[in-house]
Structures are given as structure tokens and as C-alpha cells.
Amino acid sequence: MAPAGDREGYWGPTTSTLDWCEENYAVTWYIAEFWNTVSNLIMIIPPIFGAIQSVRDGLEKRYIASYLALTVVGMGSWCFHMTLKYEMQLLDELPMIYSCCIFVYCMFECFKMKNSVNYHLLFTLVLFSLIVTTVYLKVKEPIFQQVMYGMLVFTLVLRSVYIVTWVYPWLRGLGYTSLGLFLLGFLLWNIDNIFCESLRNFRKKVPPIIGVTTQFHAWWHILTGLGSYLHILFSLYTRTLYLRYRPKVKFLFGIWPVILFEPLRKH
């Protein structure tokens, strides 16, 4: 976490229960943590296009919700890191829980009839979200939110490993790339927390263009944003395979992955 003594800016004193390692208002007076803020663009813009494409393709609403939930997480994180206000922190952390619940629902409903609804699982995830929200608003302890989020991610990992091991082994590349990016982001997130003072001292001694590469919380956003986007592709690929579509991962401009598919023709 950030050492004490950061400057104040446009949004006034920090009221959030967390203040990350990036120096506050170092780039502009209007954004508390500049790099931690703009790095959320990867979670905001691509999923919007994914949601639009999902609507055009007539996909099940839960996949549209997955894309939009990731966008909401990115927007909430943008507001949090821009202001370092407690209310904005909640807009970041609680949607992380809600979006993961949507991801869990999608992963456990991959092998069901089209447009089916699992009301028992839906009720369980909604209840879980309500309990986490209520407890977190009461205790205001970030570790509680982090543990609950970790439980959901671990559930997704177990389900993904099951699918690539026993159902669709040829999806290992996509599934493990998503997981690998997330784990690398988690590693950098911990380095940023544990060695914050050393990182800040290093940034004082090097040119800004080098120092910005050590903003590891921003890298956490980039890597987990991409990892989460690829997870949605993995879930969608699994689902469309089961529905006897012919999905393919294509790269827009040779860089950004998207999923394209068409229904299997009847003869």
C-alpha cells in the first residue's frame, strides 16, 4: 500500500479504505492515480464491442451480461482510482463480486439446453452477492472482499480445468492463457503491495518513461482485464461448441481476439 504523505488534488482528501502504491496526483491535478485509472480502458472498451456483437449474433443474454459486467467493473475501478473516494471504491469492488457470479453461472450452464434457466444456481449466486454486499458494507474490511472474490475466481479455475481436461481438451490454449494472465496480474498486484516503498524510491531515480513500467497495479488491471475478457471468450466458445455451432477465434488487426461462429448447417 502507499506510504503516507501523498499530495491532495481536485477530489480532496482520500476517504477510501485503500490507497495504492502509485503516487497520488503526480501526473495531473484531476486524477489521483493516473496510471491506475487509464489502465482500466482495457476493461471498458473491448467488452462493449463484445456485448454489441453478442446482441447481433443473438447470443444468450447471460453472455451479453458478462461483457457488460466487465465494463461496469472497469468503469467503477476508473472512478475509484481517479478519486480515491470510499463510495467509488464500492463501485469497483462490489461489481467484481457480481461479475464473477455471472461468470460462474455461465460456466456451470455451458452444457444445458439453449435459453434454459437454472433458478437454483441463480438464487444461490444472488444470495451470495447480497450476503457479501451486506457484510462488506458493515465491516468495511477489504480483505473480506478479496477473499470472497478469490473464492469465486477459484471456482472458475476449477470449472475451467475440468472442461479443458475432460470435455474440450483443444481449448487448453485459450483457457490456460486466460488463467496465466490472471495469475501474472495477481503476482504483480502483490509485488506492488509488498515492495511499494522500494518501487517509489526506484521511480524517483529513473526517467518517468521507465518509472511508469513499474506501476504494477496498473499492470494488474491490464492483465486481469485481458484475462477476464479471454475467460468470457472461453466460456462462449465452450457454450457454442455444445450448441453445435462452429466457433472460431479471430484476431482483429492481428492483435485483439474475438469469437466468430455460425450455426451448423442442416443437411
UniProtKB/TrEMBL annotation:
Glycoprotein keyword on record: no
Name of the gene: ACER3
Location in or out of the cell: Membrane
Membrane-protein topology: Multi-pass membrane protein
Cellular component terms (Gene Ontology): endoplasmic reticulum membrane
Protein's name in the database: Alkaline ceramidase
Annotated organism of origin: Equus caballus
Cofactor field: Zn(2+)
Residues involved in Ca(2+) binding: D19, W20, E22, N24, E33
Domain of life the protein comes from: Eukaryota
GO-annotated molecular function: metal ion binding; N-acylsphingosine amidohydrolase activity
Record-listed E.C. numbers: 3.5.1.-
GO BP, sorted A to Z: ceramide metabolic process; phytosphingosine biosynthetic process; sphingosine biosynthetic process
Pathway assignment: Sphingolipid metabolism; Lipid metabolism; sphingolipid metabolism
Main location (coarse class): membrane
Upper taxonomic lineage: Eukaryota, Metazoa, Chordata, Craniata, Vertebrata
